[in-house]
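Q: Joint fold for the lines below.
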Amino acid sequence: MRLPLLSIHDIYVTIRELGWGGAFELLRNGIVLGSLYALIALGYTMVYGILKLLNFAHGDVYMIGAFIGYGVLAALGGPLNPDIGLAPLIILMFVVAMVGAGGLGVAVERFAYKPLRNAPRIAPLISALGVAFFLENSVQLLTNGTRYSYNAFELGGKNGNLGPLFSPVFHVLARPVSVVQVLIVSTALALMLALTLLVSRTRLGKAMRATAFDREAASMMGIDTDRVITSTFFIASVLAGAAGVMFGLYIGETYYFMGFLAGLKAFTAAVVGGIGSIPGAMVGGLLIGVVESFAIGYVGGQWSDIVIFGILILFMLLRPNGLFGSRAIQKV
Amino acid sequence: MSEFSQTPGIPEAPEARIGVDEWVEQADERRARARGPLALAARGVERMPPSVRLLVFLAVASSLPFWLNEGDLFSYGLFTLLYATLALGLNVVVGFAGLLDLGYVAFYGIGAYTYALLSSDHYGIHWPAEVTIPIAMAVTALFGLGLGLTSRRLLGDYLAIVTLFFAQAFVAFTNTANPTIAGKGLTGGSNGIGNLDPLTFFGYQLTTTKQEYFFLVLVFALAATGLYFINQSRTGRAWRALREDPLAAEVMSIPVNRLKILAFMMGAATAGLCGAIFAAIEQATVSGNFTVSVLITIYAIVILGGLGSIAGVVLGAVVINVTFQFLAPQSDHPEIKRWLFYGTILLLVAMMRPWFRPLIVIAGTVAFGFATHAIVAAAAPASWTAGHAVDAGSPSRAKAIADWVIIPVGHPGFRTYTYIGLVAAIVGLRALKGWWRTVGLIPVLYLTAIVWENALAPNPAVTALILFGAMLVALMTVRPQGLLGTARVEIV
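A: Joint structure:
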């Protein structure tokens, strides 16, 4: 008789069947997915650190970044026969999507959050929920709910032939690691490195840290906090836009509701790493990605979301300050 | 961008904080400041004792079945009351106790599924509603207790995200997990559970819409009265104290954790009640009815009316549900949605001061529209002005609208570009000040008409969701207290 609920024995059998090679595949997928989550999570953590605002709309900025990337692809002749070479095409997609998403993030901040700087805590949260809902359904309206495909497999190949993105670079345990996977992980790492340098080495980064620490005091020290907040939203959204294009290149499809769940998981990644902590968001993102990948592989797709949400709820309950967060003391 | 030119380093002065005595002293002044027919009506409602208010509402509500047909009673009457009751429950958690519960819609679903499991052919259990509904309420209250326990440790945003996970997990559980119990999928997967029993109380079946409607009137009256008294009681005052400042409340020896859990349970039980009734009325339950869209709709109701105000919740439910039903794709009155849309815009424009400003804007928009239309008709190919308005009621009216608004045929990109342009224009309009803003409003309004005729009116279902989202943002930035809520002033 089949057990009604999750069976530990089934999971054990699956682990045995997949073996080490399967485990590596899951780990590889998890790391790629986790790089995306980490990039989105950085945006959450930066905005939360500076405004104490849970920016629900961030996931939808990521979704729109993916659509902008698709728009560039379509404008340059479509995925099957692009007018320019693969490398400049991908760079152009990234640049346009990042700038576009950045602009969108700044507009959202100006319009929906700035008037609420001194409002009760619940007001910007509801405003953020409204923006998320607005963006998501606007895209649904404009795309008629269709999924647009990057045709990632054929991208760069001539006349619908297989493109170079999914050809293997090297093998581990006889399992391939493809070009696009290397590309995603290395780009994500480069962006994170750039962000870390920006926050720790530049004047703007210093101003950001000061604003996050104490906005009022920072503004009294001569920091234009409004400009710092705008820059923070811009950088956060730029990272989300990059993640959107990566998703398109890797999974191949963009659709209007892809931002919501990804945003939710990325926010949790930020919490797992300790909210406000930049290395925390990176580690948290990778962790969530790997856990999700293993849950899909070992527990099965139908239960994976529930398992992940269960783990996340437990984590939030047991260690709400995250792995790297310091214990927050409620101030009066 | 005047904000940019502001000298950096000088922080904006925080909003005025006033003392309690001052606040009480200014009460008459604040009331007298509001003028006009709307304020008069508001003052009238304010002077009415709550019992009279409820009776007036119930009298109006009870008269509906006598002048509405069955279909209209179902979509306008029944669903308004259902949403009102549902929003009353959310109002307890968010409005009274100030806990941002984004898992509320899952309780609604749990109530529905409990009813579906205990009174349907699914497992062949046919318990009567007088047993099932209390069980559904108890089950959801228990889930509320479980989720409320997390609020012990989690503050603000963390609570919001955990409750949102709960809602997502619920949808994933009912839709995709669907564990097999007793040879059958527990929740029926994406098909849900059908063939539910109608509401049956002590052998008396409620089968017609009228019977169900009167039952809902009764449920609503009970819920509203009960929640009103709770809000007036010690518990209600403690909730408000908790909402304003949990730390201070705890210091005043208010049992903060117990009260939070109580608020969660009360809200959850109300949602469970509504869910069970909803399932019985629809005679089916599908996980698609308990998604984030529904959550946003309930939030829109509570926030439009004003967080914490029971009368506000009712008003919000009427406005939102009636709008929603007009915008529904299978609506019997497809032409009304256009009146509603333009009417709302006119009303908003008419609120501008001084009095001649709205006149200038409206006259300017009409003239601008005809001028643009004439230019496009003369300069561009005929396909640009060849379209007709959808759902206009009569062909002549569809033609008349198309004589003012540009409705092209073909040109698939037009919809997308005008829509994005409109959003950008509205964001940009915020940067303008004074007369520039008034002048800028004219092309933006015409653009709004173009977007409505080309993109929004043909897709009313998505439009409703877009407008709800936009409304949440607009309300939060313009009037966070909602229509009937009282403004929260920081009192020191």
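Q: Anything notable?
A: Chain A touches chain B through 66 residues (CB under 8 Å). The longest strand of chain A covers residues 168-172.
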